[in-house]
Amino acid sequence: MFKLLILLLYLGLNRYLVVSEPNIPVVITTWWFSNSTVKAWEVLKEGGSALDAIEQGASVCEVQQCDGTVGYGGSPDENSETTLDALIMDGKTMNVGAVGALRRIKSAISVARHVLEHTKHSFLAGELATQFAVQMGFKEESLSTSESKQLWLKWHNQNHCQPNFWTSVKPDPSKYCGPYHQIKKNEDMRPEVQMIVDKYNHDTIGMVAVDSNGDVAAGTSTNGAKYKIPGRVGDSPIPGAGAYADNEVGGAAATGDGDIMLRFLPSFLAVEEMRRGASPTEAAQTAVKRIAAHYPDFMGAVIALTKTGQYGAACHGIPSFPYVIQDKTRNIFEVITIKC
Ligand SMILES: *[C@@H]1O[C@H](CO)[C@@H](O)[C@H](O)[C@H]1NC(C)=O
């Protein structure tokens, strides 16, 4: 009887120990961007840092132009130029490197890493971020391709600059191209019309990783929204919006209607919810619901990962949302698709 008790106690304790052992290293990635996940996993598996995994993983998408929404040659702005946004956050030091509206440099996340490691700043933008990148040895080159030029020509010449992101201007932006002028307060003001977006308009690669030391990092890279107004910076490079990481808790990343999402800092909120004891899925749901309460038609998703390797996601405004995970319990990456 006594022996049985000891055995039961042992089994119970053993199970508890197995369950509580952290499942690290681990990486999760938005959408079906598995090649980036594979690259990040290679880094983590060899004992590399979460920061390296994020940078090298996201770089794969920048080179492969994932869905045309990451890297060069996608999402031309109103002037037909592709500009890039990227963020990398170190959850160990709470240091951030980010670039917004980066011009003529292909490897946005690596420029962000240089902002993190070679400056006391957190965020560089536009033409002057390009100057910084060139100083750091990055190659300056056009980000346009024949595909992005074709996309722009069709938008401009056939579709009369539809869709676009203007409101309360004349001529009527829902019918005509610019240049636009503001409508004065006493003139006819139309309410903001939410843009109908196709599913390839707002994808971003967002990644969160925990390395074998237990260090957390997160990052994003994107070429933003198609036909954006030149100068537009979305949610992706904003710490707490596009991604967030904190060694004490874990990390999160977001993708979707960036102009709306960045107003709610969904990645920060998801991390704070996990800090308060929420599961990653609950945390992501809270972040998504906060936005939906104000913008029921918004489209987006949040992925979340704890420092011990528990993960989850939530989405809104699309039928389903896939994300990719790789950890040591899997021989290869797994794509998990959730319903929204
Ligand atoms: C992964 O990369 C290969 C080329 O190396 C490419 O053919 C494939 O489409 C990529 N997969 C995804 C999901 O992008």
UniProtKB/TrEMBL annotation:
<dbReference type="InterPro" id="IPR029055">
    <property type="entry name" value="Ntn_hydrolases_N"/>
</dbReference>
<keyword id="KW-0068">Autocatalytic cleavage</keyword>
<protein>
    <recommendedName>
        <fullName>N(4)-(beta-N-acetylglucosaminyl)-L-asparaginase</fullName>
        <ecNumber>3.5.1.26</ecNumber>
    </recommendedName>
</protein>
<dbReference type="GO" id="GO:0005764">
    <property type="term" value="C:lysosome"/>
</dbReference>
<keyword id="KW-0378">Hydrolase</keyword>
<dbReference type="Pfam" id="PF01112">
    <property type="entry name" value="Asparaginase_2"/>
</dbReference>
<feature type="active site" description="Nucleophile">
    <location>
        <position position="204"/>
    </location>
</feature>
<feature type="binding site">
    <location>
        <begin position="232"/>
        <end position="235"/>
    </location>
    <ligand>
        <name>substrate</name>
    </ligand>
</feature>
<comment type="similarity">
    <text>Belongs to the Ntn-hydrolase family.</text>
</comment>
<keyword id="KW-0645">Protease</keyword>
<feature type="site" description="Cleavage; by autolysis">
    <location>
        <begin position="203"/>
        <end position="204"/>
    </location>
</feature>
<dbReference type="GO" id="GO:0008233">
    <property type="term" value="F:peptidase activity"/>
</dbReference>
<dbReference type="GO" id="GO:0006508">
    <property type="term" value="P:proteolysis"/>
</dbReference>
<keyword id="KW-0732">Signal</keyword>
<dbReference type="InterPro" id="IPR000246">
    <property type="entry name" value="Peptidase_T2"/>
</dbReference>
<feature type="signal peptide">
    <location>
        <begin position="1"/>
        <end position="20"/>
    </location>
</feature>
<feature type="binding site">
    <location>
        <begin position="255"/>
        <end position="258"/>
    </location>
    <ligand>
        <name>substrate</name>
    </ligand>
</feature>
<dbReference type="GO" id="GO:0003948">
    <property type="term" value="F:N4-(beta-N-acetylglucosaminyl)-L-asparaginase activity"/>
</dbReference>
<comment type="function">
    <text>Cleaves the GlcNAc-Asn bond which joins oligosaccharides to the peptide of asparagine-linked glycoproteins.</text>
</comment>
